[in-house]
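Final report, results section. Input specification for complex C-07:
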Amino acid sequence: LNQVLFKNPNEPPVVFHWFPFIGSTITYGMDPPRFFKENRAKYGDCFTFILLGKKTTVYVGPKGNDFILNGKIRDVCAEEIYTVLTTPVFGKDVVYDCPNSKLMEQKKFMKIALTTEAFRSYVPIISDEVKSYFKRSPDFKGQSGIVNICPKMAQITIFTASHALQGKEIRDKFDETLADLYHDLDMGFTPINFMLHWAPLPWNKRRDHAQRTVAKIYMDTIKARRERGETGAQDIMYHLMNSTYKNGVRVPDHEIAHMMIALLMAGQHSSSSTSSWIMLRLASRPDIMEELYQEQIKNLGPDLPPLTYEDLAKLPLNQAIVKETLRLHAPIHSIMRAVKQPMPVPGTKYVIPNNHVLLAAPGVSASDEQYFPQPDLWEPHRWEKDHPLAPSMVRNPDEEEEEKVDYGYGLVSKGAASPYLPFGAGRHRCIGENFANLQLQTIIAETVRMFKFRNVDGSDKVIGTDYASLFSRPLEPANIYWEKRDKQ
Ligand code: HEM
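Structure output:
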């Protein structure tokens, strides 16, 4: 009744709920994409729901994506939302624990470290890590077997990312102390911590201890590398060790350490979820896995030489697997911003008041029939030109010049009005996109060289999604049947 009597006509409609503080927290939390879809059908593209007492306004579709992700810095703020969660895990003075202008400089340092030359050196590193992982893992002994693929992909992701981005010394420490420490850090990176960051949660003590210990490991490594007078390395840590802020201050060692944690956490959850989805999708479509193998034979030669960075560009289906998997399984389903002053929504009568949180959900348009014919079908071939299921309104970077803008970390596309934005847009856009693509494509290419996958029951089913952690991922156990190509 309250909602009907006191509704402000300039505010978006509020999703019906029975209890004031809880509002729609439970239905949203259980299955966010379904919650968006159902309420969009009832209320339109822009609506408000109550998330733990907070008025949260969702605006879906390409216009909504643009409105939120390209919001002006005086209108929207990311750090206000994320800092309670990220600062205890990453550490002080980086990412959301500093002014946005400093984050932009930090992103710039990281982005410019990711050169073509660096990428060229990463492909063999990642290839070797994948091959050696499968060779030494007891779960892949013998000719065939069944494995819960998610923990395997999580390990492959951390070994490949740490080796390429942080150097061999750090990578080797993952076989010793770092794996457990990152596990403790992870425990502090959950939705519970978002809600109860003020509470003395028992696992937060371990999180704080892990943060200090990991940061010290990085700082000691930095010191040792400096003392050795190392030159010419291609990892991001090395690059940050030689970076200077615009005000002339060199990036301090504790900030480099904290950025290393932030990078690994940002990349780990999203890439390992995506690589698990890829393997599960391939198990549900062994015909596509075979096509991928044949694509390598045809385009790289029958002997399958060691993979290079240049080779990845010759494997369009391999690339499309990543694109199509991110379309249906983007690990970040909700991107949030605090509203800092009333924001009129162009073309509508709505004004979003400054006590609201804005929520962008690019996954909604990525699975909308209006842009992707048969949206629920995982079909990597749809990314081929002129395919009958080809998307509409998704820009092809080869075809037209697009307007670009620089928020301080290099040029990015100006318009976020796209239905397909798995890496976000605007000033908080991902800087890891190219690395993630390279890492995932290399992992796929090496895996199809070694294995044939299928579902344990031989069907084409895919498992459901776990939304209980911050990054969505497959429900576990996500078992697949594997078989080696080479007889051993
Ligand atoms: C930001 C997705 C991999 C580093 C983002 C955002 C998205 C995203 C959606 C925007 C968040 C927001 O606007 O609040 C992904 C996906 C990945 C991936 C889907 C893999 C499949 C990586 C990797 C790295 C990385 C590998 C590091 C090498 C970052 C950083 C930001 C970011 C530093 C900026 C945060 C900000 O400015 O607020 N990513 N990411 N990401 N990502 Fe990624």
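The chain is about 50% helix and 10% strand. The radius of gyration is 23 Å. This concludes the modelling results for the funded period.
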